[in-house]
Amino acid sequence: MAVMIGLLGGLVWAGRYTSTEAQDAIIDSVRVRVVADQVAYLIRDAEAMAYDQLRGQRPAREPKAQLRQALTLLGELQDMVGTDPALQAWMEALQITVRARQRSVETSLQLAAEGKAHAGLQHLTQAQVVFPMDPDLRGLTRTIEQWVANVRTDARVTRQRRQILLLCAAMQLVLLISIVVLAWRQASRRSQAEWRLQQAERHSRQILQTVREPIILLDGQLRVLQINAAFCDIYGIDAGRATGQPLAVLGNGVWEDAALLERLSQVLDRDRELWDHELNQQLPDGALRCVIVNARRMLHSDQQAPTLLLTVSDITSRALAERQVRELNRQLESKVALVSDINRELEAFTYSISHDLRAPLRHVSRFAERLGSHLDGRGDDLSRHYIEVILSASRRMAELIEDLLVFSRLGRGTLRSQPVEMQRLVEDVRELLQSDEPARKVLWQIADLPVVQGDESMLRTVWQNLLGNAVKYSAPKEQPCIEVTVHDNGRGEHVFCVRDNGTGFDMRYVNKLFGVFQRLHRASEFSGNGIGLASVQRIVARHGGQVWAEGEPGVGAAFFFSLPIAEARAMQREQ
Questions:
Q1: Could you write out the three-class secondary structure of 367-395?
Q2: Does residue 313 surpass a pLDDT of 80?
Q3: What is the pLDDT of residues 384-434, one digit of tens each?
Q4: Helix extents (H) in 114-162
Q5: Is the four-CA dihedral 250, 252, 254, 256 of positive or negative sign?
Q6: In degrees to the nearest 10, what's the CA dihedral of 315, 316, 317, 320?
Q7: Helices marked H in 212-304
């Protein structure tokens, strides 16, 4: 080493000017590269912080401080480059790129401040694409390397006798550069690791403080290690003074519950878990609260001793709501039972009255017939007219009683749910109506009807009443037209429609259509007893649907009813 140092010293003294020039050139090139890399690093670091801020995260440092430092280093880099035209050209390109990236960061932060974070992200990303720094850095590096190569070539020509010195200097320079690069990388990695650790710890603390659910961390003696803001707010605790205090003294002693403290100790000692422990507490503000306590053992980061994580959930509102729901359910059950009893009594009363009216009605009819037979050939026209009126009224009364019994059974009978082909039911009812009046020509327009789930007998009654009414009330027309259609209302229901061009009705009286014994036309105009549409409404209601009507006097009427389609679709898939 001494001989090498002496030899190097002599050679350095002999060719000090050329060596100094070459070394200065190499050192300047290294400095330029390092400063350029620092500028690029600062710009990218500022952009990374801007990204965090645009995403709603809190950056570790202020992006603008990084930008100012980058611009300062950029000025130093300009001075270091000197007057070389090629280096000046690349330096100008790098300045344009750096300043453009700086403006993009400032613009994105301004957009974020105006509530346009998404636009800021797009602007920042677009600037990185439009103004890339890597080409400028590579160009600057290549130019510097070319410049250094030229200087070395000149030095090699003028210093051929000093090759040993150049070799040693180059080796030392390479070693120095390697050490600098390795040290810089190691320091950068360590700095990033420390920063990430600090960020993770900061985030964990922020999460703990941000959570709305009260959370507290206790040590092995149930003393406070950490506590969040929600816990302090609810129990009126000063977070700065709470650390180290026993759980039992917090909140004016609301946690001084022997059973709870015993179970928390078991969680710590035996690694058990405490779930949904319900507790009634009177808070310092005098409010009574019902809370649920959950606790679990865990290891604290600063020590090996186990710690206890305790969370509190306020269920006062839920408990009150559950009590109200139970009370409402009790009231509803009692009212349902009362309504059921009233309906049973009403149906029994209707059946009894209808059944009891038959006997005297038969007597009236029988004695009227006997009176007619007794006066046969001897009575005058007025007597015979009275007897016919009595018999006609008796028959009408018998029909009303029979219809009333059928209507009563509709509410008491059991629904026999099964797949029902509505197309077949309509065709059967249409053929039956045509057979009653074969001479009458009715134009039928029947769409393709679906299969539904329901009681076939009851649904047949629906079609008999609706189609029968359509035929009856369209009789005055020269060309009666009856249309049957169906559509899906978008709410999981089939809507069926029976439309005719008959006499129609005034919509002011539409509410009377579905009442028992309610009629909008005189019995002399159209036969009927006013129970058919009431029966339709009851049947459809029992199937979970609705009935309504539209009409216009002299134009016609349309009767609609809906039925659920969910079960029908499932049944069709099975078929």
A1: HHHHHHHHCCCCCCHHHHHHHHHHHHHHH
A2: yes
A3: 777 787 877 777 677 666 666 666 666 555 677 888 899 999 998 888 888
A4: 117-130, 134-158
A5: positive
A6: 120
A7: 229-235, 239-242, 258-270
> Is 140:90 a contact under the CB 8 Å cutoff?
yes
**What span, in angstroms and rounded, lies between the C-alpha atoms of 366 and 393?**
13
Query: Which residue do the tokens 């645009």 mark?
Result: 54
Element (H, E) at 165: helix 163-210
Give the whole-angstrom CA distance, residue 178 versus residue 173.
Answer: 8
Q: Which of 386, 387, 390, 399 is CA-nearest to residue 358?
A: 399
**Main-chain dihedrals φ then ψ at residue 217, nearest 5 degrees:** -115, 125
**Which is nearest to 541 in space by CA: 519, 517, 514?**
514
| HEC string for 425-458 | HHHHHHHHHHHHCCCCCCEEEECCCCEEEECHHH
Average pLDDT of the chain to the nearest whole number: 77
CA distance 445 to 482: 6
**CA separation, residue 229 to residues 215, 240, 247, 288, 351 (Å):** 9, 11, 16, 20, 71
Strands 443-446 and 481-488: parallel
pLDDT at 491: 85
What distance in Å separates the CA atoms of residue 244 and residue 217, rounded to the nearest whole number? Answer: 11
Give pLDDT, residue 569.
45
- Is residue 553 a contact partner of residue 510, using CB atoms and an 8 Å limit? no
* Sole residue written with tokens 């001479």: 439
**Residue 108 tokens, joined:** 């994105």
Beta carbons of 71 and 94 less than 8 angstroms apart = no
Distance CA 481, CA 83 (A): 102
Judge whether residue 55 has pLDDT over 60. Answer: yes
> 300, 217 in Cβ contact below 8 A?
yes
Q: What per-residue confidence (pLDDT) applies to 120?
A: 75
pLDDT (tens digit, 9 = 90+) per residue, 318-329? 878 888 888 888
Inter-residue contact 266 to 285 (CB < 8 Å): no
**Burial tier of 231 (Cβ tally within 10 Å: 0-12, 13-18, 19+):** buried
